């Protein structure tokens, strides 16, 4: 069955406002079932987690439901799903916990392609432990992160390799499985940032070779919550700093304070929504999620191909990176105009694009673009259309032509 873009778009009430959202990488619009699930959870009787009274049991069910849903999304076990407020917060928890076991002379391997959420928590944990940071470099021209360099970077003292499964700046999809293989051969753990990649295709924890994988629900039509997954046995071996009376079982041991129960209902609804993207899909939710994301990916790729071809043809535009495997995300600059001004002009025309470094701090620093305002980012999500792409290209053509005239 062909991807029914009209049906998909009708699922997002915010799209009725008429903006063209090219900032899925910064956060997608919220799907109606997510809004309804969260509202229903708030409308109903609530209580803190307890088996003694029904509203308390409901809260327990909301937590269990979100864990099961995220497990289906990522090919994990529900008992290995740690829920939290953001990918950044979850990565800090893991970095502090693992870092407490590191010794001076230990090493961690980070990449300059990563969002700072999968960099700075590790840099700071390494500093606290007296461990050394080693850097994987991306190719400045192609934006690729060559997996081969990890053979030189990883050694007997490597405790952790942190790497992205998809660059939120230029879309690069590194060969995480190969990197993980190298890391594991040296006995190191692998933490994979799936925040940008997970919305754009089926993800499987085991296939990636990740020991830890993090994702944020607000990048896939859900609420502002996140999850980090690992083998439950892996979690069981770790001791985070925590309150004495809070649950010591896994995965609860890694979750702090009272969770946002209504938003957890939204996480479950968001995974169900992804599972509905291919109406012909059958089987359990994991199978339907994979089918839904496969259908969405094909649509996104077609829309992105048109965008990339159009951007490449525009005079006065510089595009950063041309990775062979990529998420539908691209960064660019218009000659003669700052990224902030470009984004503001596009914004005035109802086109929503991020500008700056989008926290891909090391990338923009290495490219020498950070101090100069970074770039403008266009990212495609499964509700975007070719008509929206054409709208963006026409507006950019107007802006770039004027920039070129002024530069003369
Ligand atoms: C690739 C990537 N990693 C991590 C993050 C941080 O996610 P969160 O906002 O959930 O902390 C982002 C947010 O944009 C991201 O794009």
Q: Would you mind describing this structure in some detail?
A:
The protein is built from 14 helices and 13 strands. It has 408 residues and is α/β, with parallel strands linked by helices. The strands form three sheets. The protein has a seven-stranded mixed β-sheet with strand order 2-8-7-6-5-3-4. A four-stranded antiparallel β-sheet has the order 9-10-13-12, covered by helices on one side. Strands 1-11 form a two-stranded parallel ribbon. Strand 9 and strand 10 form a beta hairpin. The protein starts with a helix and ends with a helix. The model has no long low-confidence stretch (mean pLDDT 97). Bound molecules: pyridoxal-5'-phosphate. Residues 25, 86-88, 115, 117, 164, 168, 193, 195-196, 216, 226 line the site of pyridoxal-5'-phosphate.
């Amino acid at each position: 069955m062909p991807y029914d873009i009209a049906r998909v778009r009708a699922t997002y009430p915010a799209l009725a406002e008429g903006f063209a959202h090219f900032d899925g990488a910064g956060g997608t619009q919220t799907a109606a079932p997510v809004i309804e699930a969260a509202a229903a959870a708030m409308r109903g009787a609530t209580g803190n987690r307890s088996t003694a009274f029904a509203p308390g049991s409901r809260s327990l069910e909301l937590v269990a439901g979100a864990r099961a849903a995220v497990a289906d999304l990522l090919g994990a076990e529900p008992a290995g799903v740690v829920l939290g407020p953001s990918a950044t917060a979850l990565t800090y928890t893991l970095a502090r916990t693992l870092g407490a076991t590191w010794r001076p002379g230990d090493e961690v391997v980070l990449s300059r392609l990563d969002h700072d959420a999968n960099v700075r928590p590790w840099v700071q944990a390494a500093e606290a432990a007296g461990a050394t940071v080693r850097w994987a470099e991306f190719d400045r021209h192609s934006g690729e992160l060559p997996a081969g360099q990890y053979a030189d970077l990883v050694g007997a003292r490597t405790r952790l390799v942190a790497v992205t499964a998809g660059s939120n700046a230029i879309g690069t999809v590194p060969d995480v499985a190969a990197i993980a293989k190298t890391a594991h051969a040296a006995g190191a753990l692998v933490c994979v940032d799936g925040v940008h990649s997970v919305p754009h295709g089926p993800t499987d924890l085991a296939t990636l070779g990740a020991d830890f994988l993090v994702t944020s629900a607000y990048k896939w039509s859900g609420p502002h919550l996140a999850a980090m997954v690992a083998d439950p046995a892996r979690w069981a071996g770790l001791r985070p700093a925590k309150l004495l009376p809070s649950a010591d079982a896994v995965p609860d041991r890694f979750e702090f304070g009272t969770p946002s129960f209504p938003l957890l209902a939204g996480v479950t609804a968001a995974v169900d929504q992804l599972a509905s993207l291919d109406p012909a899909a059958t089987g359990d939710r994991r199978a339907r999620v994979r089918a839904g994301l496969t259908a969405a990916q094909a649509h996104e790729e077609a829309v992105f191909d048109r965008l990339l071809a159009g951007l490449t043809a525009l005079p006065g535009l510089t595009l950063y990176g041309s990775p062979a495997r990529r998420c539908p995300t691209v960064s660019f600059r218009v000659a003669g105009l700052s990224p902030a001004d470009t984004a503001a002009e596009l914004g005035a025309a109802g086109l929503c694009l991020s500008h700056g470094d989008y926290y891909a701090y090391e990338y923009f620093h290495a490219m020498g673009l950070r101090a100069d305002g970074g770039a403008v980012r266009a990212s495609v999500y499964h509700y975007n259309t070719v008509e929206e792409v054409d709208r963006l290209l026409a507006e950019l053509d107007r802006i770039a032509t004027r920039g070129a005239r002024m530069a003369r």
